[in-house]
Write a structure and sequence with these properties.
By secondary structure, the protein is mostly helical. The chain has two domains: 1-225, no CATH class; 226-446, no CATH class. It contains 21 helices and five strands. It has helices spanning 31-34, 58-66, 77-85, 95-102, 129-141, 147-157, 174-177, 181-193, 198-212, 228-237, 250-260, 264-283, 291-300, 323-326, 331-341, 353-359, 363-385, 396-407, 414-420, 426-433, 437-442, and strands at residues 4-7, 21-24, 42-45, 70-73, 91-92. It has a five-stranded parallel beta sheet with strand order 2-1-3-4-5, with helices on both faces.
């Protein structure tokens, strides 16, 4: 069975989709990657956020097309993205898409409007310029105004912020247009009475296209290049097994384990050494044998000399070890710590994905996922009850004290503990801990 998804909001408020179409709110960055999409599925994009949250990026759409998913766009954000990506396989629907495609429209804010929250039905609080254009064009055809008047009004409105545009504001354009305020008021009333809603018309046209779209889709040609950014977006879009889309995500659960699980450093170190051993087997022709093979791989790559043949030449390790580790005399242990702490994934591979794959099926990860969800709910409730509160205002020093308490050792050791837990620095760990600090401080457990 294939699935059809529709991202829709203020372009067609109150619309009830026909059976077989899953209605989603306006699309934002990460929403497409979060869908359980498979080859043959279809996604229709009408509305999307762009101001208060990050807009859906082009590469996210291309990545979905690469999976064999058909992506259609119309009316608003969908029309914009389709005009930009139709040569790569996205399909545009409707007049607004055509106007962007051929250059009759050239500004993103032509389709933008201010609207209320979902519980208001996305009630419109301004009029998109494309609808005003259509109303003025009809007024010219009906003899209600001259073409020159319509052109002046449009030119003036282009300088007005999209959230303030409406037919009722026409009289305020008198100075910018050189037209009489009374004449503009009458024209505004005419356009309001005879409103042309091209965005809704195009949205409904997309729904019909969505219903008619058969299995298949995607795009031909070379796959979209994978970057660390795309890999990171995919990791952020992952959800723990059995969790709904409103869960903060698998990455949040991983952060809880990284930050607060006593056993995570050893688990991560074992995983890193196993990955390096496998890479050695594949590229150097040696069988994987746990940590020893990982250490040998560093010799093969010229990172350091053979510790058995050249006991000297390891001064570089001092920067990667605590005082106690540096004087322990166990070179194999020191090298394992170095390999784990300096580990980086190859370009185009998410640094977290290799751990998510192993951890997601475990009971400990499920507990961490529940903790992550509780932490996010707790901070949201704090923000609602105390509007002045944000996690950004929590003192870094307070978070640092909590992490040192959780990890043990001294503050001087915290940099190394952060590396053991997969953070680039102690400062990065502090920032990652912000969403979890309020609840964990009260109940420090995973």
């Amino acid at each position: 069975m294939t699935t059809r998804y529709l991202f829709l909001g203020p372009s067609a408020p109150g619309f009830v989709p026909p059976p077989g179409i899953v209605l989603r709110p306006p699309v934002a960055a990460g929403d497409l990657l979060a869908l359980p999409l498979a080859a043959g599925d279809t996604v229709g994009i009408v509305d999307g956020y762009f101001h208060q949250v990050r807009a859906v990026p082009h590469k996210e759409i291309l990545a979905v097309l690469d999976r064999g998913v058909a992506v259609l766009g119309a009316a608003s954000t969908g029309a914009l993205r389709a005009a930009e990506l139709d040569t790569f396989g996205m399909r545009g629907v409707g007049q607004i898409y055509q106007d962007y495609r051929c250059g009759r429209l050239d500004a993103d804010d032509e389709v933008a409007l201010l609207h209320g929250p979902p519980e208001s039905g996305y009630r419109a609080m301004s009029e998109p310029l494309v609808n005003i254009r259509a109303g003025l064009a009809a007024a010219v055809r009906e003899g209600a105004c001259a073409q020159e008047t319509a052109d002046r009004v449009i030119a003036a409105l282009r300088s007005v912020p999209y959230a303030l545009r409406s037919c009722q504001r026409f009289p305020e354009l008198a100075g910018a247009t050189g037209l009489d305020a009374g004449e503009l008021a009458a024209l505004g009333r005419h356009c309001a009475r005879n409103r042309r809603d091209v965005k809704r018309a195009d949205a409904l046209a997309l729904v019909e296209a969505l219903r008619a779209e058969g299995p298949g889709g995607g795009r031909s040609g070379e796959p979209v290049p994978r970057t660390v950014f795309l890999a990171d977006w995919e990791d952020r879009a992952r959800r723990p097994p059995g969790e709904h889309a409103d869960h903060p995500g698998s990455l949040s659960a991983l952060r809880v384990l990284q930050l607060f699980s006593p056993g995570f450093p050893a688990l991560r170190r074992d995983r890193v050494l196993a990955l390096l051993a496998r890479e050695c087997a594949e590229s150097c022709g040696l069988p994987p044998a746990g940590g020893d093979t990982a250490i040998a791989h560093g010799v093969h790559r010229g990172v350091y000399p053979d510790p058995d043949e050249h006991p000297d030449g390891f001064d570089f390790l001092r920067a990667w070890l605590t005082e106690d580790e540096a004087v322990c005399g166990d070179r194999q242990r020191q090298l394992r710590l170095f390999l784990s702490r300096s580990f980086e994934t190859e370009p185009g591979t998410g640094g977290d994905a290799v751990f998510l794959d192993d951890l997601e099926p475990t009971a400990e990860f499920a507990r961490a996922a529940r903790t992550a969800a509780s932490c996010h709910r707790f901070t949201d409730e704090l923000s609602r009850s105390r509007p002045e509160f944000t996690v950004d205002r929590i003192s870094p020093e307070r978070i640092a004290e909590l992490l040192v308490q959780q990890w043990g050792g001294t503050r001087a050791d915290a940099e190394f503990h952060a590396l053991d837990r997969g953070f680039g620095s102690f400062a990065a760990a502090i920032e990652a801990a912000r969403p979890y600090y309020p609840l964990i401080k009260l109940a420090p457990r995973t």
